[in-house]
Design brief:
Blueprint lengths: L6 H7 E6 L1 H19 L4 E7 L3 H10 L4 E13 L2 E10 L9 E9 L3 H11 L5 E9 L12 E5 L5 E2 L15 E4 L4
Helix pairs in contact: 2-3
Bound molecules: guanosine-5'-monophosphate (5GP).
């Protein structure tokens, strides 16, 4: 999409809804309960990988009852249209010294696995008390490296998806659901 899209352009790009707001809410409620139980009142650092995870992180942190700090990293996987180029760069790092924290990474989607494999390797070198990855979406059919999230809320087929934080050319992040992107429209 090279120009500012009209409302009509937007609607044509939304092929079908894959996961509804209600399904997302229920899965996050359960994930929040599991995280709160696992850390048993110990403080955690919930890390969002920008930009895609900002909506997921904001809902997940409100479903967690354990004391919780928030941190952000920006890791960019470069795409040619909807195809990963395989290059990952950390463009913004955490402020916290994570050796004092149980770290929970909240990610929007694991696709090839490259972003999280790199981010996890980097953070492990900083000796956190513990580290786990919670992803909203997992596309296992697309994996190119050996990586598995500790918790995955939804497994989806090999479609390019938008909404609930996920974009195409920076649009569609504000959709309240996960939809399949219409590459043909
Ligand atoms: P990976 O490194 O696992 O290939 O890709 C991770 C990043 O690529 C995600 O955080 C997300 O920003 C982007 N990505 C992967 N698949 C999709 C998708 O289906 N839709 C969107 N909007 N972004 C995706």
């Amino acid at each position: 999409m090279n120009r500012i899209p009209s409302m009509e352009d937007f609607e044509k790009k939304i092929k079908r809804i894959l996961i509804t707001p209600e399904e997302i809410r229920e899965a996050i409620r359960k994930a929040g309960e599991d995280i709160s139980r696992l850390y048993d009142g110990n403080p955690i650092l919930l890390v969002g990988i920008l930009k895609g995870s900002f909506v997921f992180l904001s809902d997940l942190c409100r479903a967690v009852t354990a004391p919780c700090e928030i941190g952000f990293m920006c890791a960019k996987s470069y795409y040619n249209g909807t195809v990963s180029s395989g290059e990952v760069k950390i463009t913004m790092d955490l402020e916290q010294d994570i050796s004092r924290y149980h770290v929970v990474i909240a990610e929007d989607i694991v696709d090839t696995g490259r972003t999280l494999k790199d981010v996890v390797a980097l953070l492990k070198k900083r000796n956190p008390l513990s580290l786990q990855v919670v992803t909203l979406l997992d596309k296992p059919d697309r994996r190119l490296v050996d990586f598995k999230a500790d918790v995955s809320l939804f497994t989806i087929p090999d479609h390019f998806v938008i909404g609930y934080g996920l974009d195409c050319a920076e649009y569609f992040r504000n959709l309240p659901y996960i939809a399949e992107y219409n590459t043909e429209a």
